[in-house]
């Protein structure tokens, strides 16, 4: 089995983690009521035409999300998207230490609005779109209330960027006692190094990092096992 | 100590000083849904005219705050996406708002229902946030905003006294903010319910004050200037 951090994280450090944190290769601890959280797959992240975007990894991740979301919707599994709130619309988003302060505006008249979900993975009418002010999808948003109301026990996290908002969302999911699954191919970062090391970090501490193929099998299994989530 | 009876409390209004530093005004749900004659709540049998007595007090209070350099934060109840709560009928609050939303989709629109009523001033530099439930603190960006602005005391007004105002005031107090509720800038559908809510909050949540208390406590131009870079236009 090839893992995303192979060749990036030294093997002796992988072993070190395994001795203390448990097996690297393991069955994910997913439950029976999953939801998918698609983090910030907006035009301005997926597409290099935007200053903050990175097509080389964003476009393949979008394609992986399309596949994952089709299966999720078929199984009647709720889908949540996040969008980063633009400062121009919500000045308070900028309040803070400003380690990653987006000063972007939709400046280019030739490009469609960057803050909207990328066209290739546009939300369906039954999906929920959550606007967030900070990296985590849980912070300052109704997401937790919605997941509790739906009886969700597992969050499947995808999107961009792996080391930023995906990581923050996965950790907050763990903090709120959800089983957290991060899908390797459906996440992306500008930095290949940070993508791989963030996945390693998440896998060894807070989440199960799985392949797209694994999660598709899981979604099929959930579909068959839980009659009340089957869509009609 | 002996708590005053309700009758004793209602008969005794004493001046209260309101902190003049690190303080903001929170205006709860002063929006078309709650106060407009065209509100769908009227169609649902809830007479929104009872809430309109709060309008002059809210306008006076926010004007006082702006003149003194204190932030004004409007928070509006606005439903979660319908899909998110489709099968969830757990609270009576949701019953009210879902009725309103359903009708809003047909007859008005969600933006109209959420809009601050035209009788009130929303000035440049005021903040406008949305909330999905009663409390301004639940599932919203209010608390990080207050933290970012260095706010330690919150003056709460709006509608309705016993519901969203009280939910917000209780959370403000429990999150560590000095909490003040302005008795002549709040409204409740049924008068005695509002008065008993104020009585309960004055006893156990914060202090119930008047717009005159606030005006006396906040002479114009006395606030410590906020970092202008952090004072935003309305969202």
Summed up, the helix count of chain A is 7
Query: Strand order across the biggest sheet of chain B?
Result: 3-2-1-4-5-6
Largest sheet of chain A: 6 strands, parallel
- List SSEs of chain A in N-to-C order: HEHHEEHEHEHEH
Question: What is the β-strand count of chain B?
Answer: 6
Distance between the termini of chain B: 45 Å
Key traits:
heterodimer, A: 232 residues, alpha/beta, six-stranded parallel beta sheet, 6 strands, globular, disordered C terminus, B: 235 residues, 10 helices
Descriptive account of the structure:
- The complex is a heterodimer of chains A (232) and B (235).
- Chain A has 7 helices and 6 strands, in the order H-E-H-H-E-E-H-E-H-E-H-E-H.
- Chain A has helices spanning 11-21, 43-46, 55-74, 143-150, 162-175, 192-205, 212-225; strands at residues 34-39, 79-84, 128-132, 154-160, 179-188, 208-210.
- The termini of chain A are far apart.
- In chain B, helix 8 runs parallel beside helix 9.
- In chain B, strand 4, helix 8 and strand 5 form a beta-alpha-beta unit.
- With 235 residues, chain B is α/β, with parallel strands linked by helices.
- The chains are: A alpha/beta (232), B alpha/beta (235).
- The A-B interface holds A 89-92, 94-96, 125-129, 133-134, 139-146, 149-150 and B 80-81, 83-85, 88, 90, 127, 129, 132-133, 138-141, 143-145, 148-149, 230-233, 235.
